[in-house]
Design a protein that fits this description.
heterodimer, A: alpha/beta, Beta Polymerase, domain 2, 2 domains, two-stranded parallel ribbon, B: 396 residues, alpha+beta, Cytochrome-c3 Hydrogenase, chain B, three-stranded antiparallel β-sheet, 45% helix
Amino acid sequence: MRREEARAYAEEHGLEVREAHDLLHIVLPLPELKTHMAAFKAMGFNYLADVIGIDYRDYPEAAGWHPPERFAVVYELVSLPGFADGDGSRIYPRVYVPERKPELETVSDLWPSANFPEREVYDLYGLVFKGHPDLRRILMPEDFEGHPLRKDFPLGETPTLFNEGRYIDPESFRAGLRGKEKGLTGWRGGRRKGERR
Amino acid sequence: MIPEPKELRTEEMLLNMGPQHPSTHGVLRLVVRLAGEEVLDVVPHIGYLHTGFEKTMENRTFHQNLTYTPRMDYLHSFAHDLAYALSVEKLLGAEVPERAQVIRVMLNELSRIASHLIFVASGLLDLGALTPYFYAFRERETILDLFEWATGQRFHHNYIRIGGLKEDLPEEFPAELKKFLDTFDHRVDDYQGLFVGSPIFEGRARGVGVIGPEEAIAHGLTGGSLRASGVNYDVRKAYPYSGYETYDFEVPLGERGDTWDRMVVRLEEMRQSARIVRQALERLEPGPIRDPNPHFSFPPKELLASSMEAVIYHFKLATEGFEVPPGEAYVPTESARGELGYYVVSDGGSLPYRVKVRTPSFFNLQALPGAARGHFFQDLVAILASFDPVLGDVDR
């Protein structure tokens, strides 16, 4: 299986490997992104299914693991079954991109299908893909300011008002749901009595 | 007297097509560079239907998000519900009971048939064939009526819950569905007779917009458009989910990867989907339709009248949702347009930290310029239709 091959490759090169919920995550160092991705392509991962941007700014320490940088870009590589000798392996290499210099190499020359999704990540997160043939905004209007999927992009909500000046502030209401502080009922999302799990 | 010109020269022209144009299947805008009638280049501009679902979903609970999922691909909406639920269920470790799995597969395939019917109807309409539109909508109307009966909605079913289904099927539903299936295969034969083999259709579709397998894979095509190029990739076979591995069906393949193949492959897919629905109907045994885990499943409605505990659970689940263990999950599924999956990141709270939707139409659109180059402008409309894009699916 190419999945095992990729895991062996990652261990050989001292890359961090994590496996959770059937996904094989491989953390690539930012400067060597292109060389490792080219190696995966040569290994037979002929299909790039997705490029996923994640902003880890608000990711809580309590989740047991914390990313080293603010942004992450996750690639989804498939050895496409049904074509040539594809065996259906899927790997999820990722790079962490620092906030102060949000730049990384494009992979759209290796897999042309990365063209649109990289533009999407650029549009919604403001990460610049160096060497991309056509890096323009794709979903938002051309004259739009800011990158809406960043966690610090304002939502533009209004608080719900009640009698005597009481109000529900959406931000603190959601903070309660996230378990960071007491919400409306004080429940922190823990296990309840009688739960079978 | 005006002297005869030595050569006839055609100036290059930039033509804007859309975003309000009936043949763009929504609000797609194409900027086409033309030399006379010949297409030199196509640049798709998308985002006119971008509503920021992914951002909105980060600020709603896992359950509330089921309202947004079907609104992306409004033609095969059941697939979006299913894909989202599968990813969250993976993070939760939920066990979906057998009956719920069977009903999910059954309705998913029914929804796929409805989507393909629209594809065939509107695709042929773009080629100037008006008749199939009315025939296909007759069958689609029956399917939508069945959906309305079972789920309460025609389009945005909202029938799936994390860990199972909203409620059980109506008692007489299987019998009515069987009635529909009895006639459906003949109806597909009718559609086939309406256009396959017609010299006009042959002329407009054969050899038009050819995409080879290598090019299709490089540009990220999936679904029927990829299988028309001869690549045997169907997520239902390659990464089975919801018990698809136990159903007996075939994956129709094309040979040349032209518009003709892309149209006819989907016609055959409808027959296969009907086959799966028939098998699912036979397996329909009485049983529970939801994971009984009170952590994320709503208590049964009849308990609400007698048990205070059930009311409390119901209130907690409805207002604050449930906690999902931290982690990242992705489950690929097969929608009518190709590989569809939700990459869900949870931070341990009751709102997803990040939801990324891998929508097939978005990726399929990348192959359009390559397929349309060198063809006539009229064929561009046919090629676009043969990719079956849904702009809600593209822009999200």
